[in-house]
Structures are given as structure tokens and as C-alpha cells.
Amino acid sequence: MGYRVLVTALFLYGLLFGSGLWASSESQHPDTGISVLVLGDSISAAYGIDKRDGWVALLEQRLEPQCASVKIHNASVSGETSAGGLQRLPSLLAAHQPQLLVIELGANDGLRGLSPKQMSRNLQHMVDLAEAAGARVVLLGMLMPPNLGAAYVRLFEQAMSDVGDDESVLFLAFFLKDVAGNRRLLQADGLHPTAAAQPRLLDNAWEVLQQPLTAICHATLAVTRL
Asked: How do residues 87-125 score in pLDDT, each as one tens digit?
């Protein structure tokens, strides 16, 4: 296989064997105000770099000048699957009461060869739970490398897009666009994004986050002026 495909496969493989540490602590009591919940794997957990350099922390910095009252809770865990995220989601929704849920999961399902249909069901269940709790959903999608087999790659992509096609979901087809396979943006292990890659990840995510976050910020400003 080509070098780019190999690096992409190794990069995704590395998501499965992360540290398993929380990117940030979770409150045991409901938060007040406007909040955003990020539920992801090692990409969003800023594996191997300072958490302050991760794309989620950079998102908070981007919002701070105009929307400082919005709290971002990063509940991402290295190695997380869609099943694990689904299991944790109800308590996270209760604790943080987010207006926006950002889901960045699925890569580890694919790397473990888990059923794409089950992954799709897990993701859709998360969407349903979030909407029932009054949160809008953003899905940061993933693609599988060709070496996993054309049939599986197609099934995975279709399963992910089936959830993204929901009219209530804001969907980005490939969160690692312009990062996966780019060795200049990978750590020494050849697997995980460097700190230098994080602004690019943020720009990718911003394609689907800008609209709902702008709406949230405007609503927050309107309330504070009352």
C-alpha cells in the first residue's frame, strides 16, 4: 500500500490505544448558563499534546472574546467507541445540560471491525437522546482507510452518512481532512496529530460549528442585555 494510505491507517489505529484519560473533569452537578458538550475519542482528547493546545481548547479561545459565557465541556476519551459514548451520554447530558452536542466518534468502531450498522444505531441513539434533552447535534465524521477493504469502507461511510443525513444533524463528512496522512502534522509516533495540526482541525470543525455557535452566542448576548 502507498505511504499516505499506510500513515492514515496507522493514525486511525492509534486512536484505539490511547491513554483512556478524560480530557477534562466532569461536574457532578448541573451547570447553569449556556454549555457545549464535546464527546469524542483521542482526536478531541488531545492525545500526546498539552490539552491547552487541543482543538477543543482552541475553540474555547476562539469563542472567548465574543461569547465568554459559553462553557465548553470536553468529555472525550482516548480509545472511545460509539457504544462507550452512548453509555456515558445520559449522565453527561444531565450533568451539563448542553445546548449543543458535538459527537466525534466512530473511528474506533471501524478499527475494531465492529458492525457499521450498529455504529449507526449507536450514533442515532445519541442524536435522539440529545434532541430529547433540548440539544442540537453536530457530527464530526470519520472515514476508513482503503486497506480495510473496499466493502467495509463503503459500509462504514454509508453508516456514518446515514446519521449525518438526518435534517436535524449538522454533519462534517471527514474531520481529519488535510491532516490524516500528512506526516508533517503527525507526532513522532506517526499516529496522532501534533499541536500544529490542531488549528486545522478547528477550522474543519468550524465549517459546521459556526452556525449553531453563532446562534448560541447571539442568544446569550440577548439574555445578558435584558
From this structure: 999 999 999 999 999 999 999 999 899 999 999 999 999
Alpha helices in the chain (DSSP H): 3-15, 55-67, 82-96, 107-111, 116-132, 150-164, 198-224
Catalytic residues: 42, 189, 192
Per-residue cell: 124: 442515532
CATH code of the domain in which 15 resides: 3.40.50.1110
Per the CB < 8 A criterion, the answer to whether 74 and 58 are in contact is no
Structural domain that includes position 91: 3-224
Q: State whether residue 143 is helix, strand or coil.
A: coil
55, 206 contact by CB (below 8 A):
no
Q: What's the gap between Cα 112 and its chain centre?
A: 18
Q: Smallest Cα–Cα separation from 140: which of 184, 172, 111, 112?
A: 172
The Cα 37–Cα 75 span in angstroms is 7
Question: What's the domain count of the chain?
Answer: 1
